[in-house]
Amino acid sequence: xxxxxxxxxxxxxxxxxxxxxxxxxxxxxxxxxxxxxxxxxxxxxxxxxxxxxxxxxxxxxxxxxxxxxxxxxxxxxxxxxxxxxxxxxxxxxxxxxxxxxx
Length: 102
What we know:
Its EC number is 5.4.99.5. Keywords: Isomerase, Lyase, Pyruvate. With about 100 residues, the chain is mainly α. It has one domain (about 5-100): Chorismate Mutase Domain, subunit A (Up-down Bundle). It has three helices and no strands. The longest helix is centred in the first third of the chain and has 32 residues, at about 10-40.
């Protein structure tokens, strides 16, 4: 792992970006596992897939984390809103499939 300023060529820089991309994909896959578990738990707790105040909480957390990390909070919010919508659709599909089996 090299810091950006330690990269002496575009090849080195691209290798680090590719390494980060692999790590981000792995983390997103891990997050998807938690989304799947949420879809299994929510019906038993009487919760819908979309919970507005939780969305607001997640976005607030992400914006705060972005500011602390030196990332544009508007970019982080845009990315997370897309991720959240994907997660809700995934939960709704799973929860609907369970309802159809009942």
